[in-house]
């Protein structure tokens, strides 16, 4: 097997912000190397990436993750056959999910409008289209859709986002899809203490009458950080789910672009923390994925001479060489996209490219690898 | 017997043995089912396939750096943002380092060590968002599991070791053997990872401590500090 693994590493500075918060409103953190770090959960960033996919891929290559499966399918059925009434389309859609065993028939309200699944169900647009066509065909032939047909339809024509991020259906585990990518929680390369922003908001009308005092007061917790981000894509697994080398290449290219350009939207309007990574390193490997977070186990401490990014870049470059030498794990190919002199320590890690070049070259390399005989 | 040694380290790990629904817990140390699952992933055994040989492995783990429990709060929304799924709490171990040992037939152990260097599926420390920091395999030793966990150097970070005494007592949790006293049981013996009917049976474990020498202990006399001596005690 031509093993192909894409490891993506990034250093990214975010200004004062609260990108991903917990149930008390505090920015998420984790302890690493005995020191508290800023943290952005993998779930938060994966959602940002999935939303970015919408601008990078055709709708037919994407999916929809929703509980409102009935509404979604009914729309498609109606689009295929506009002569149907809304109720007829809804009831056909309901029948599909009842036949599939994902939704129980409601005996009290048999004609209930739009059924919902008990959890977020991830289906590709093509799978939904196929289900809509099958529902209409079944209605015309008078032979209802059965569970096996349903399963066959939701097991083929997977979209890029389903193949990449996986699908988990507790009630029907044989239609699960194993995720081809693994995204680590982003953590800061340095220790952080969350800070509080105390704010007052002035009441416009009160101000007009020269009345002092705030309309409201409050606090927002925040921190600023230089994050280390890591993700890995199992190209072979992706290929197996998507079934074609071209789709696999497109998926990886979209993943790399989305990884670099996306940002979770938490308190975006408050802090405008919309940054791009200071450096992105992609290492293609044929053995195993390697997470280089160990570079920051000892937290970076900025000095008067040097800011965090420069020290972080140096630590990452040094750790990469140390791990790869110790374990004899040289990458098959490597690319670096970086900004400014502060990240020059990373220059030796790979070919210097712009993000567009990086995405294209990784894509080409993948089709080359997948095209080779096993 | 032959032993495969693993270093399980990373900012986050999560080793659940009885998680259900919206509250996903973690044990304080890697579970046998978690590590066997990781080895199965390395070998490319699908969840629905039988685990055969792997079921006979003996397992032990040493808590080199116990880490801290982290509670993570998660929400999920549909792509259009209109609909929310139930809120979930996920627990992680942050900043932990473990030395795990797996003992079995020599050929199988060497096969597993090879698989860890070229894993079929990406490895993770109990939860997919927890990739290990650096390669996992420390190699194969031709000694018993107990000796391996007793003699292998302490894997905690330099910073952690510097703050510790010259001799540290590390907790070891291993499969109990016939005749072992004071064992406890956990629902942590994997039988099948098939998601349609995942099966675990009970596993008897023995907890004890092993003394390990700390070559980074600061000679500040911390270990000699005995406040009770002032009282003549």
TrEMBL record, chain A:
Q: Which Pfam families match?
A: Cas_CT1975
**Record's InterPro entries?**
CRISPR-assoc_prot_CT1975
Q: What is this protein called?
A: CRISPR-associated Cse4 family protein
UniProtKB/TrEMBL annotation, chain B:
Q: Which GO terms describe its molecular function?
A: RNA binding
Which InterPro entries would you find in this protein's record?
Answer: CRISPR-assoc_prot_Cas5, CRISPR-assoc_prot_Cas5_N, CRISPR-assoc_prot_CasD
| Region of interest: Disordered | 175-197
What's the protein name? CRISPR-associated Cas5e family protein
What Pfam families has UniProt attached to this entry? Cas_Cas5d
Keyword set for this entry? Antiviral defense
Q: Where is the composition biased (Basic and acidic residues)?
A: 175-189
One of its GO biological process terms is: defense response to virus
- The reply to whether Protein transport figures as a keyword in the UniProt entry is no
């Amino acid at each position: 097997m031509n093993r192909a693994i894409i490891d993506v590493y990034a250093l990214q500075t975010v200004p004062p912000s609260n990108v991903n918060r917990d149930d008390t409103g505090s920015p998420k953190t984790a302890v690493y190397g005995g020191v508290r770090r800023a943290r952005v959960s993998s779930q938060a960033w994966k959602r940002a990436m999935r939303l970015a996919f919408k601008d990078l891929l055709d709708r037919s290559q994407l999916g929809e993750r929703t509980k409102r499966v009935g509404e979604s399918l009914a729309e498609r059925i109606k689009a295929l056959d506009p002569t149907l009434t809304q109720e007829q389309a809804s009831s056909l859609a309901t029948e599909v999910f009842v036949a599939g065993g994902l939704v129980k028939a409601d005996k009290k309200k048999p004609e209930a409008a739009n059924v919902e699944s008990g959890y977020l169900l991830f289906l590709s647009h093509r799978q939904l289209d196929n289900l809509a066509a099958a529902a209409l065909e079944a209605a015309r032939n008078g032979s209802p859709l059965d569970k096996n047909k349903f399963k066959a339809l939701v097991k083929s024509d997977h979209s890029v986002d389903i193949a990449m991020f996986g699908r988990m259906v507790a009630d029907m585990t044989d239609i699960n899809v194993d995720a081809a990518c693994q995204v680590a929680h982003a953590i800061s390369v340095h220790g952080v203490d969350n800070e509080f922003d105390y704010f007052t908001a002035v009441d416009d009308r009160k101000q007009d009458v020269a009345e002092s005092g705030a309309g409201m007061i409050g606090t927002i917790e925040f921190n600023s950080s230089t994050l280390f981000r890591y993700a890995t894509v199992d190209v072979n697994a992706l290929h197996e789910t998507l079934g074609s080398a071209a789709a696999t290449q497109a998926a990886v290219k979209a993943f790399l672009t989305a990884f670099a350009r996306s940002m979770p939207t938490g308190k975006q309007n408050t802090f405008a923390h919309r940054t791009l990574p200071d450096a992105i390193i992609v290492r293609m490997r044929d053995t195993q994925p390697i997470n280089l977070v160990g570079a920051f186990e000892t937290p970076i401490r900025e000095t008067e001479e040097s800011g965090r990014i420069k020290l972080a870049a140096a630590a990452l470059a040094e750790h990469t060489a140390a791990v790869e030498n110790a374990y004899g794990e040289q990458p098959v190919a490597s690319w670096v996209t970086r900004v400014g002199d502060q990240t020059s320590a990373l220059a030796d890690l790979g070919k210097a490219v712009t993000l567009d070049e990086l995405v294209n070259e990784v894509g080409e390399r993948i089709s080359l690898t997948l095209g080779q005989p096993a | 017997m032959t032993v495969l040694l693993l270093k399980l380290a990373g900012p986050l790990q999560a080793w659940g043995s009885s998680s259900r629904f919206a509250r996903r817990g973690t044990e304080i140390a890697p579970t046998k089912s978690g590590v066997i699952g990781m080895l199965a992933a390395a070998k490319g055994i699908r969840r629905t396939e039988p685990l055969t040989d792997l079921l006979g492995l003996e397992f032990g783990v040493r808590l080199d750096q116990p880490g801290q429990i982290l509670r993570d709060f998660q929400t999920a929304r549909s792509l259009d943002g209109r609909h929310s799924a139930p809120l979930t709490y996920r627990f992680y171990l942050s900043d932990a380092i473990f030395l795990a040992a797996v003992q079995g037939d020599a050929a199988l152990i060497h096969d597993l060590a090879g698989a860890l260097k070229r894993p079929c599926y990406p490895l993770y420390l109990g939860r997919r968002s927890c990739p290990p920091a650096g390669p996992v395999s420390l190699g194969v030793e031709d000694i018993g599991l107990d000796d391996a966990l007793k003699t292998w150097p302490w894997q905690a970070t330099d910073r952690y070791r510097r703050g510790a005494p010259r001799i540290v007592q590390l907790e070891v949790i291993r499969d109990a053997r016939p005749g072992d006293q004071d064992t406890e049981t956990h629902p942590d013996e994997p039988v099948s990872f098939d998601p349609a009917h995942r099966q675990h049976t009970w596993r008897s474990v023995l907890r004890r401590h092993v003394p390990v020498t700390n070559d980074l202990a600061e000679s500040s006399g911390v270990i000699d500090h005995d406040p009770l001596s002032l009282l003549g005690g």
